[in-house]
Design a protein that fits this description.
Blueprint: E1 3-9, H1 16-19, H2 22-25, H3 28-31, E2 37-39, E3 45-47, H4 57-61, E4 67-73, E5 80-83, E6 90-92, E7 101-106, H5 113-120, H6 138-144, H7 149-158, E8 164-167, H8 174-177, H9 182-189, H10 195-201, H11 217-230, E9 235-239, H12 247-260, E10 266-270, H13 274-280, E11 283-290, E12 294-302, H14 303-312, E13 314-315, E14 320-321, H15 337-341, E15 345-348, E16 351-355, E17 358-362, E18 365-368, E19 372-376, H16 383-391, E20 407-410, H17 421-429, H18 436-443, H19 461-474, E21 479-483, H20 491-507, E22 511-515, H21 519-525, E23 528-535, E24 539-542, E25 546-547, H22 548-559, E26 563-565, E27 572-574, H23 580-588
Parallel strand pairs: 6-12, 7-10, 7-11, 8-9, 9-10, 17-24, 19-22, 19-23, 20-21, 21-22
Antiparallel strand pairs: 1-4, 2-3, 5-6, 11-12, 13-14, 15-18, 16-17, 23-24, 23-25, 26-27
Helix pairs in contact: 6-7, 9-11, 12-13, 17-19
């Protein structure tokens, strides 16, 4: 089979002034007077993809790991939609939208999901791979997709006949461009008669007089989604709407999105929470490829088929395996045999912690060595406070302190500091940092080995999150406390973390506590579950650890959501509210169904 060669140079990593350009010096075609690689005017090497022979010597010789060369099937080259520049990331194919349908987009970070959304929003004009053609005709782009739903969509979009409402990924940037109070913004953009209803559903009433600049991440997210829905549009695009929200808010907002779209509207959702995406979408497109190199859109598939294809890492219709390892869930939660086999446990009595206007009441409980205790509950209910009590950062009202030898704590919001990644991890890991086991089991699965020489101040949110998690797990500790480690991470990174966490907890016979809002991460990693109830911002009650079935059943009953098991992957799937399965499981009292 003939191939289409993709060569990408990461300019953030490349520093030709320091390396002596071995990529050029050792290139076989260059040695034979063929300019497969040459220096460009900006001081970076330029790789000629037609002249490159794909030997991989430049990839291996580059001291900065800045070069990637991939061979793809030749026919895929005809499907290129957009390329950011010479030797830069490119995306092949594009998801299409249908009326009265919510389309889901799933794939790992850096593979083109946001690029695809921005093209569909009209914010990026696709160049069809012609990086030297800035004046490409918009109608030419429409004709490129002739015979597909994309032709009709893009034609209407470029002619101004489609109104698009777009909720961006990075909501933390909103206060930098939008000023004023929440109520003023909603009144300004609202073109629908249901403003009061949306304010009530999104729990924004108490925020109307608050300045946008002081909103928390969860409040900003709810405001951004509400603004997106309130606009009178034909197309609604939501990029990672579940970020910063707790489990209850995620499913509530998923229901609101589905019910609020007017007749004939089209919607697209990008999200890393598979349970939410499963609940919200009607169809799924899968993106695969290599992060920062290329991405390929495949589909559409039914929701169940698309998510299962992504978990299994194989697309039967294209005969493409894009990941070697399958992601498989525990069909039945682990038993409590740890309590029988290991008499050692971590104990805490009834205790409380009071702040101005808020009180957390913790019930007496214990955790056993080798267990991962998952913690669920709404935002502002005291989960982080409990973690800080265990870590010794906060003192209870009774001045009770846990007795332990060592603790490793990953805070909810990682703060970057002026230090190299290697320096931070070497200090945490000690001698084991240089071992192959440490690199194979912790650094490489998270792709941290590719950024060891970078400063924490220069990392993205997801990169910083991975480094801080790795730092916490690198320490030899008796207790591991991780507060929302899945934030900013894609699906594959989340499950890599949970596998590492379970292994370290078991091998070191540690006590591990995990706070997270991704229900499937908790299901995949936890041995026990602590449920936090109460009234957010005013009072919280922490129940003692219990088995997953009892814990999830109690939590999901309060949320009025039922879950079943997928027969192929074992993953928990949310039942549509009011469906036959939803009604049947509620009658049985089984909100967290164990069997597939």
């Amino acid at each position: 089979m003939t191939t289409h060669r993709v060569a990408v140079l990461d300019r953030e990593k490349c520093d030709s002034r320091k390396c002596g350009i071995p990529c050029i010096r050792f290139c076989p075609p260059v040695r034979n007077d063929i300019e497969a690689i040459k220096m460009g005017g900006e001081g970076y090497p330029i790789i000629s993809e037609p002249l490159c022979i794909g030997c991989g010597i430049c990839v291996n010789k580059c001291p900065f790991n800045a070069i990637s060369i991939v061979n793809l099937p030749q026919e895929l080259g005809k499907d290129i939609v957009h390329q950011y520049g010479v030797n830069a990331f490119r995306i092949y194919r594009l998801a299409y939208l249908e009326k009265n349908t919510v389309v889901g987009l799933i794939g790992k970070n850096g593979i083109g999901k946001t690029t695809a959304v921005q093209i569909l929003a009209g914010q990026i004009k696709p160049n069809l791979g012609r990086v030297d053609s800035s004046n490409i005709d918009l109608m030419e782009i429409s004709r490129y997709f002739r015979g597909t739903l994309l032709q009709e969509y893009l034609t209407s979009l470029y002619q101004g006949n489609l109104k698009v409402s777009y909720k961006p990924q990075y909501i933390d940037k909103i206060p930098k461009v939008v000023k004023g109070k929440v109520g003023e913004l909603l009144q300004k953009i609202a073109s629908s008669a249901n403003l009061e209803e949306i304010i009530e559903k999104f729990e924004l009433k108490h925020l109307l007089d608050r300045d946008i600049s002081v909103l928390s991440g969860g409040e900003l997210q709810r405001l951004a989604i509400a603004v997106c829905i309130l606009k009178d549009a034909e197309v609604y695009l939501f990029d990672e709407p579940s970020a910063y929200l707790d489990i209850k808010q995620r499913f509530k907002i998923a229901s609101i999105i589905r019910s609020s779209l007017k007749d004939g509207a089209r919607a697209l959702v990008v999200d890393h929470d598979l349970a939410v995406l499963d609940y919200l979408a009607d169809k799924i497109f899968v993106l695969y490829g290599m992060s920062s190199v290329y991405g390929v859109v495949s589909g559409p598939f039914s929701v169940r088929e698309g998510i299962n294809i992504f978990l299994q890492g194989y697309i039967p219709s294209e005969n493409v395996r894009f990941r070697q390892d399958k992601i498989v869930f525990q069909v039945r939660p682990p038993s409590s045999d740890l309590e029988v086999k290991d008499s050692e446990y971590l104990y805490w009595p009834n205790m409380s912690k009071t702040y101005d206007g808020f009180k957390l009441s913790v019930k007496e409980g214990r955790a056993y060595r080798g267990e991962v205790v998952g913690i669920v509950g709404a935002n502002g209910i005291g989960k982080t406070t409990f973690i800080k009590l265990l870590a010794g950062i906060e003192e209870s009202d009774e001045n009770f302190k846990l007795s332990y030898k060592s603790v490793s704590y990953k805070p909810q919001y990682p703060v970057p500091r002026d230090a190299l990644v290697e320096e931070v991890l070497r200090n945490a890991a000690g001698k084991k940092f240089d071992s192959d086991i440490y690199r194979d089991e912790l650094l490489r699965p998270l792709r941290i080995d590719e950024m060891l020489d970078r400063n924490l101040l220069d990392l993205s949110g997801g990169e910083l999150q991975k480094v801080v998690i790795a730092e916490a797990l690198s320490r030899d500790a008796e207790i591991y406390l991780l507060d929302e480690p899945s934030a900013y991470l894609d699906v594959e990174e989340r499950y890599a973390i949970t596998k590492i966490l379970k292994r370290i907890t078991r091998e070191r016979r540690a006590y591990t506590f995990l706070v997270d809002h991704d229900l499937m991460v908790l299901d995949f990693s936890s041995s026990k579950l602590m449920v936090f109830t109460g009234e957010p911002g005013r009072r919280g009650i922490a129940d003692p650890p219990t088995d997953l079935h009892t814990g999830f059943n109690k939590f999901l009953k309060e949320m009025n959501i039922t879950f079943r098991r997928d027969p192929d992957t074992g993953r928990p799937r949310a039942n549509k509210l009011g469906s036959q399965l939803d009604k049947m499981q509620k009658e049985m009292g089984e909100y967290y169904y164990l069997s597939s």
